[in-house]
Amino acid sequence: MSAVIWLLVGGMVLPPSLLAQTLTNPVIPSSPSGSSVSPSIGNQLSPFLPFGNYGLPTPPGQAIVTNPTATQPIVPQHAPCPTPTAPDLSPENTVPNLNDYWPMAANSLLPTSVEQRMRQEEEERDRQLERLQAEKEKRGLELQSQVEREKKGVSQLNGLQSAVQGAVGGMPGQFQTQLNQQKQQVEQKPFTAELLRHQDFSVEEAFAQFSVLQGIKSRLKQFGYDFFDAHAGGFTSLQDVPVGPDYVIGPQDSLAVHIWNVPDQNFNRSYIAPVERDGMVVIPQVGAIPVGGQTFSQAERTIHARLSMLLKRFELHVSMARIRTMKVYVVGEVARPGAYELSALATASNAIYAACGPSRSGSLRQVRIMRDGKTVGQLDLYEFLLQGDRRQDNRLQAGDVVLVPPLGPVVAISGSVKRPAIYELKPGTRLTELLTLAGGLTPLSDRQRCHLFRQDPALKERNMIDVDLVRALASQGQEKSRLGVEGGDPLLMDGDYIRIATLPTQVVNVVSLVGAVKSPGPYEFRAGMHVKDILTPEQLTVDAYADRAEIVRTDPATYLTKVIPFSPTAVFEGRESDNHVLNRLDQVVISSQMRAPALVLVEGEVRRAGYFTIEIGERLSSVLKRSGGFTPNAFPNGIVLVRESVKVKQQAELDRFIAAERQRLTAQSAGIAAGTAGLSVMAGASGAMAEQQVLALRLQQLEATASRIELGRVIVSLDSIERLEGTEDDIILESRDRITIPTPPQTVGIIGSVKNPTSVVYRPGLDLNDYLRQAGGVTEDANKREMYVMRANGTTDSSYLSAKEMRPGDTIVVPQKIEARPPQLALWQTVASIIGSLALTAAGIAVVGR
Question: Is residue 768 helix, strand or coil?
Answer without folding.
Answer: helix
